[in-house]
């Protein structure tokens, strides 16, 4: 089984992905020669981590009839000491005062089920090749 995502160039530093019924636009920041008209690919990568954890937190609460108002996730990126890349990603699940105490550890466990995080922890094989069509 496989799925395909089609990557195309949209002018300037814009590179877009088509996946199913979705078009995902990216651009580079002006300092990198882009227009800043869309998130950079690495920003989407980071957002995929937080939003994936978020849907697991949301689903956990929904299944237990726990209101999600006042819950938010704050994702912090710590850069490597040598200055290149991210060395640590921290996700703080901010809960309202009335969040049930007995579920605090469980909601963290739910966030840790994120498929994006699991793929980072156990990365897939990458194959990049050039083909003539």
Give the C-alpha Rg: 18 Å
Order of helices and strands: EEEHEEHH
* Amount of helix: 25-40%
Shape descriptor reads globular
Name given to the CATH homologous superfamily of the largest domain? K homology (KH) domain
CATH topology term of the largest domain: GMP Synthetase, Chain A, domain 3
Strands of the widest sheet, in order across it, are 1-2-3
What does this structure look like?
By secondary structure, this protein is of the alpha+beta class. The chain folds into 2 domains: 1-39; 40-133, GMP Synthetase, Chain A, domain 3 (2-Layer Sandwich). It contains 3 helices and 5 strands, in the order βββαββαα. The chain has helices at 41-63, 104-111, 115-121; strands spanning 6-9, 15-19, 22-24, 72-79, 86-94. Strands 1-2-3 form a 3-stranded antiparallel sheet, with no helix packed on it. A two-stranded antiparallel sheet has the order 4-5. A hairpin with a 5-residue loop joins strand 1 (6-9) and strand 2. It is globular and about 55 Å long. The chain starts with 5 loop residues before the first strand and ends in a 12-residue tail after the last helix.
Q: TL;DR?
A:
The protein has 133 residues and is of the alpha+beta class. The chain folds into 2 domains: 1-39; 40-133, K homology (KH) domain (GMP Synthetase, Chain A, domain 3, 2-Layer Sandwich), CATH 3.30.300.20. Helices cover 29% and strands 22% of the residues.
Topology diagram in text:
Elements (H helix, E strand, L loop, with lengths): L5 E4 L5 E5 L2 E3 L16 H23 L8 E8 L6 E9 L9 H8 L3 H7 L12
Antiparallel strand pairs: 1-2, 2-3, 4-5
């Amino acid at each position: 089984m496989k799925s395909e995502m089609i990557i195309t160039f949209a002018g300037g530093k814009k590179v877009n992905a088509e996946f199913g019924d979705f078009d995902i636009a990216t651009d580079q920041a002006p300092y990198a020669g882009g227009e800043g008209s869309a998130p950079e690919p690495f920003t989407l990568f980071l957002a995929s981590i937080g939003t994936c954890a978020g849907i697991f937190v949301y689903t956990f609460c929904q299944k237990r009839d726990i209101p999600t108002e006042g819950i938010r996730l704050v994702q912090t990126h710590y850069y490597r000491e040598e200055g290149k890349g991210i060395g640590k990603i921290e996700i703080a699940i901010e809960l309202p005062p009335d969040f049930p105490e007995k579920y605090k550890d469980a909601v963290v466990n739910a966030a840790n089920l994120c498929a994006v995080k699991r793929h980072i922890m156990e990365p897939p094989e990458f194959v990049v090749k050039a083909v003539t069509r």
